[in-house]
Structure formats: C-alpha cells, structure tokens
Amino acid sequence: MELIFIIQSVISQGIQIAIIGYTIVFFALVLLFYVFTFLAKGLVWQKKQKLLRENKTKKLKVEDLIVTGEVATAIAMAIYLSRDLHDNESDIITIKKVSKAYSPWNSKIYGMRYFQR
Q: What is the pTM of this model?
C-alpha cells in the first residue's frame, strides 16, 4: 500500500478549510454580538412595559432603566463575595515545635552535606 501526497492538493484543501473556519467563527461572533445587544434592549423594553402597566413611567427616565457596566460589575462582585464557599476559619495562627522522630531518611540528608574526599 502506497500513500501519495500531492502537495498542491493538500495546500489548497488546507487553505479552503482555514477560510471556511475563519468565516464560521466570524459570523458566530457577529451573531453573538447582535444577540447580546438585542437581549439588553429587550430587557429594557420589558421593564418599560412593566412600568407602563403600573403607571410609574412618569417618575423614571430612560437613563434610570439602563444598567451600566460599572453597576453590573459591582453586582457581580457582591454576588461572588457573598457566596463564599470556603470553610469558616479562625484567624488565630498557632506555631508548635514538632520534634521529628528518627528516620533513616532524615539521617541520610545530614550525611550528604559534608562531602569528604
């Protein structure tokens, strides 16, 4: 059984795969951009409709409905810090002197420090 590679064919197929891959990734990123943009606008629109039904729109402006990046970051950080999943530990540090029991491994390292010729 013999494998024959034609370099021109391999290169052209590789270029085709790369172009198709880059195109798919680019369009996926554009699609995600529009999804997140319209999602944010849809949430603001939904909040406006809720306030219209409750007749509270006269008190609020459109700027009050928009959540800025700083506010979203502060909310995310507060949620992260409030969900501390670690054990509650005391802040007391105790240092105890521990005497090591004799072990052949301990004595070997002492013999390796001083190399005698």
A: 0.44
**pLDDT tens per residue, range 54-95:** 776 566 666 666 777 788 888 888 888 877 666 666 667 776
Q: Name residue 80's amino acid.
A: Y
The residue type found at 90 is: S
Instruction: For the chain, report the end-to-end CA distance as a whole number of angstroms.
Output: 63
Contact 47, 65 (CB under 8 A): yes
| DSSP string across 37-59 | HHHHHHHHHHHHHHHHHTT-TTT
Side-chain-facing half-sphere of 73: CA atoms under 13 Å: 3
